[in-house]
């Protein structure tokens, strides 16, 4: 199974950081300095109307989209100004790994969204994105943006979205966090040494939920062992507090919370044409969530990817049936939003 990786892009990348001062969180806490690290590719049009922002999932960073960016690719840098940004709490953006550890504010998906929105509007001066793209947890962030800042989007692309973390997902996160906490190095999150073994075991536990049962049954044991080890390494590369707080935000996701529990009222606020891409074999973020969004928003384009890759289908590479299908749907959607005009 080929997945998107951090490949060298075909055009020059400009890596930068933007700092938000005295950023307020939903909890009432604040950070005096909140850093967002991002890359840009392509040229921003004089009217600032060709920008696309890409947001990664929970474990990945801003480079997860690299293989889709470049001249002639789905996110075509000859046409668009493409921004990839690490979300609050991970990558090279502000996170517990900066030194606050357990004292880092408990943040939400909406906090992540507001930090990204402030960076785009204040830092780059872009008031309306040509498209906002989110993968997995990034799609949760993008969904909140569509609800709370609908005027700032011309198009919305959601890969593996859901309006709420379901019971199965919440249980999975509880198991991940509990596994990390079993490492003696954890020390209630106030560790001197990163609990690498706990992180590794958490990644191994997480892996089966990212693929389908059919995929596990058809994949040779040696290949599965490699993939489980890759999952362990991906988790071990994280600072433990950063990973635990990130998944806590992911677990608490519910677009209806600010609307008295009325999910339909929340989703009805989305006015941008929206492409929803989901895999029916996804066991981590089940397809019912994407279907609920489809049925509640104003302008949906809904696609179920034919695959047994489960959640990993969202990261399939070009040259695979899943990757080619996703790329083509993105191209078609962006072309349709161009034809709509402003």
Notes on the structure:
With 342 residues, the protein is of the alpha/beta class. Helix content is 36%, strand content 15%. It has ten helices and eight strands. It has helices at 109-123, 137-148, 167-181, 196-206, 213-218, 221-236, 240-251, 263-267, 287-296, 321-340, and strands at residues 14-24, 30-41, 51-55, 81-85, 131-135, 156-159, 274-278, 300-304. It has an eight-stranded mixed β-sheet with strand order 1-2-4-3-5-6-7-8, with helices on both faces. Strand 7, helix 9 (287-296) and strand 8 form a beta-alpha-beta unit. The model is unreliable at 1-11 (pLDDT under 50).
Give a quick set of tags describing it.
342 residues; alpha/beta; eight-stranded mixed beta sheet; 15% strand; globular; disordered N terminus
């Amino acid at each position: 199974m080929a997945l998107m990786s951090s490949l060298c892009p075909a055009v020059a990348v400009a890596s930068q950081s933007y700092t938000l001062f005295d950023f307020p969180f939903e909890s009432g806490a604040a950070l005096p300095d909140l850093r967002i690290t991002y890359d840009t590719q392509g040229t921003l049009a004089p009217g600032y109307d060709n920008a696309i922002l890409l947001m990664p999932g929970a474990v990945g960073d801003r480079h997860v989209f690299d293989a889709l960016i470049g001249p002639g690719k789905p996110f075509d840098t000859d046409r668009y100004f493409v921004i990839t940004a690490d979300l609050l709490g991970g990558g090279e953006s502000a996170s517990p790994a900066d030194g606050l550890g357990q004292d880092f504010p408990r943040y939400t998906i909406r906090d992540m969204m507001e930090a990204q929105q402030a960076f785009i509007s204040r830092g780059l001066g872009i008031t309306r994105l040509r498209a906002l793209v989110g993968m997995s947890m990034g799609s949760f962030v993008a969904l909140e943006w569509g609800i709370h800042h609908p005027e700032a989007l011309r198009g919305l692309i959601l890969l593996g979205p859901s309006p709420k973390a379901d019971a199965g997902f919440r249980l999975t996160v509880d198991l991940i966090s509990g596994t990390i906490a079993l490492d003696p190095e954890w020390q209630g999150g106030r560790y001197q040494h990163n609990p690498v073994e706990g992180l590794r075991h958490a990644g191994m536990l997480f892996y089966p939920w990212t693929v389908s049962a059919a995929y596990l049954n058809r994949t040779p044991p040696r290949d599965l062992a490699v993939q489980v080890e890759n999952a362990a390494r991906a988790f071990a590369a994280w600072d433990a507090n950063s990973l635990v707080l990130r998944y806590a935000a992911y677990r608490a996701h519910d677009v209806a919370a600010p609307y008295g529990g009325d999910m339909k009222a929340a989703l009805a606020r989305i006015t941008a044409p929206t492409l929803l891409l989901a895999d029916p074999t996804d066991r981590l973020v089940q397809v019912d969530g994407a279907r609920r969004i489809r049925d509640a928003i104003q302008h949906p384009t809904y696609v179920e990817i034919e695959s047994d890759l489960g959640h990993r289908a969202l990261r399939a590479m070009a040259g695979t049936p899943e990757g080619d299908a996703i790329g083509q749907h993105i191209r078609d959607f962006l072309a349709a939003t161009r034809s709509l005009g402003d």
